[in-house]
Design a protein that fits this description.
By secondary structure, the chain is α+β, with helices and mostly antiparallel strands. It is built from 17 helices and 8 strands. Keywords: Membrane, Transmembrane, Transmembrane helix.
């Protein structure tokens, strides 16, 4: 009986030809380069504004970290086995991608102007950028490949600035708080990058926090006055790089350490020629949108001006009460505080009150060593503006090259109308915002708006503007009852601060 013949082993699966791999990589690079170039073109003004924000020690400098963190997270996901089904519906890609591009246009072209006053607090232009990149990727790569990186896209959504600002405020508002809040981005990126399993992902997540806080503590000890952006970038990026590299080397013990050794899958969206013009046209339309212009008068600089809190009262007024609010450090930085002074006229004036009662002017002033923060948190953030309607500002010449802005505010909560005159100036180290407030109730017990750091009411106002428009918070028929009083008082206040410097009007 003949011995059974042994079955020949099956030959190993052939590796994809090097030519196919290189061709696929070239197509991936071309598509991402196309998206990247159009993104920079469409949001060129936004990037220029972000440069100025970073140079001014604004908190939004953290946005520069988002692309690097997203790339590090994406390369970790790309190295994991591909699990999505090879099902592809090009029509669905175009429909969803087009809807996203339209939404990006609405964000950038409509809501951006509606929230002009809170431009630096929200940075809706960068949220529109995120929507544009996501929608373009769906059109050029397909929905299923994009959804594979869903956690990376969620990480990139942290480009929306409002949650970051709230986190920094809750942590204290200083440089260390800014760095600690950025560690959330670093830890999330690390956890996504190393998450071949749920356990590895959580280990990477918490390890990035540990390393990041150690680096942050070292910086707080050795470089306490380093720029805000350094506190944001160095601990975050270094912790992600250190933990990610360490876990990569540990997982590859005894194995080749080549980072790009995985199989390159063919692109799901084979033909994109017809989709390229759509993305290009939307990018051109986005580039035509102008960012909200800063309309407030510039802050003049007076070297030698003592910016230390309490102000000298103008001639004819005296200080009746003084109160200091240190909580503004959460908004304007560690070297900042709010001083409220109640200034009362020495004698009555029938032009300011029909019974010639001595008028009261409430003087609030905030000092900070981070002048750009005044752009991020406007004056109304200091007060509960939920039930208020503001007029269009009027400019008032206060002498010495100082220009103030006066607004009328209808306060449905206090049941009064108050007039407010404000201006800013600075010396070589600090900036100061001065706010003068009068109310149409001239009694001694008249209610004045109280500084309370009303961030939650501010969020409520933002939602009101979203659903009802600016008409819900604007006063189209203002009443400036105290324009003469505030103009006289403001000019006297400016003179009282600058005359000791030997300044001539």
């Amino acid at each position: 009986m003949a011995a059974p013949t042994q079955a020949e082993p099956e030959p190993p699966a052939a590796a994809p030809p090097q030519k196919d791999r290189s061709y696929t990589l070239a197509r991936i690079i071309f598509r991402w380069s196309f998206i990247g170039v159009l993104t920079v073109f469409a949001f060129w003004d936004s990037f220029g504004s972000l440069v100025e924000t970073t140079r001014g020690s604004g908190l939004n400098g953290y946005i520069w970290i988002i692309p690097t963190a997203a790339i590090l997270a994406a390369q970790g996901v790309a190295r994991q086995p591909r699990t999505e089904l090879p099902i592809h519906d090009r029509q669905t890609d175009i429909i969803l991608g087009t809807m996203g591009l339209v939404f990006a246009l609405l964000l950038h072209g409509v809501l951006l102007q509606r929230y002009a006053l809170h431009f630096h607090l929200l940075r809706l232009d960068f949220l529109a950028l995120w929507v544009f990149v996501l929608s373009s990727a769906i059109i050029l790569f397909g929905l299923r490949p994009v959804s594979r990186f869903v956690w990376v896209w969620a990480l990139a959504a942290m480009i929306f600035a409002l949650p970051y600002h709230i986190m920094v405020i809750l942590l204290g508002g200083n440089r260390i708080a800014a760095g600690a809040a950025t560690l959330v981005i670093a830890a999330t990126a690390t956890g996504i990058a190393v998450s071949r399993s749920s356990r590895r992902g959580w280990i990477g997540y918490f390890s990035a926090y540990v390393v990041g806080f150690v680096l942050l503590a070292i910086m707080a000890w050795w470089t306490p006055y380093a720029p805000v952006w350094v506190y944001q970038a160095v601990p975050a990026l270094l912790s992600t790089a250190i933990v990610g590299l360490a876990m990569f080397l540990i997982a590859r013990r005894g194995a080749p350490k080549r980072p790009m050794d995985r199989k390159v899958e063919p692109l799901a969206a084979g033909q994109i020629v017809r989709a390229l013009p759509l993305v290009l046209v939307v990018a051109i339309l986005l580039s035509l949108v102008k960012l909200p212009a800063w309309t407030s008068p510039p802050a003049p600089q007076f070297n030698g001006l003592q910016i230390s809190g309490p102000l000298n009262p103008p001639a004819g007024f005296h200080v009746a009460d003084t109160e200091i609010y240190p909580w503004v450090q959460r908004l304007y930085g560690r070297i900042s505080y709010l001083t409220r002074q109640q200034m009362v006229a020495d004698a009555g004036n029938p032009e300011w009150d029909k019974d010639a009662k001595p008028r009261t002017v409430m003087v609030d002033n905030v000092i900070t060593d981070r002048p750009f923060s005044f752009n991020v948190y406007p004056t109304k953030v200091l007060y509960d503006a939920t039930a208020t309607r503001l007029s269009t500002p009027r400019r008032i010449d206060l002498g010495y090259g100082v220009t103030g802005e006066m607004v009328s505010v209808v306060d449905d909560h206090l049941m009064v109308t108050w007039n407010m005159l404000q201006w800013m100036w600075r010396n070589s180290d600090r900036a100061q915002r001065i706010v003068l407030i009068t109310v149409d109730n001239h009694e001694d017990s008249a209610p004045f708006p109280e500084p309370n750091g009303a961030l939650l009411p501010t969020l409520s106002t933002l939602l009101t503007v979203l659903f009802r428009g600016n008409s819900a918070v604007n006063d189209d028929n203002p009443t400036f009852k105290d324009v003469d009083l505030l103009t006289t008082f403001g000019r006297g206040m400016v003179a009282a601060q600058l005359q000791p410097l030997g300044r001539l009007q």
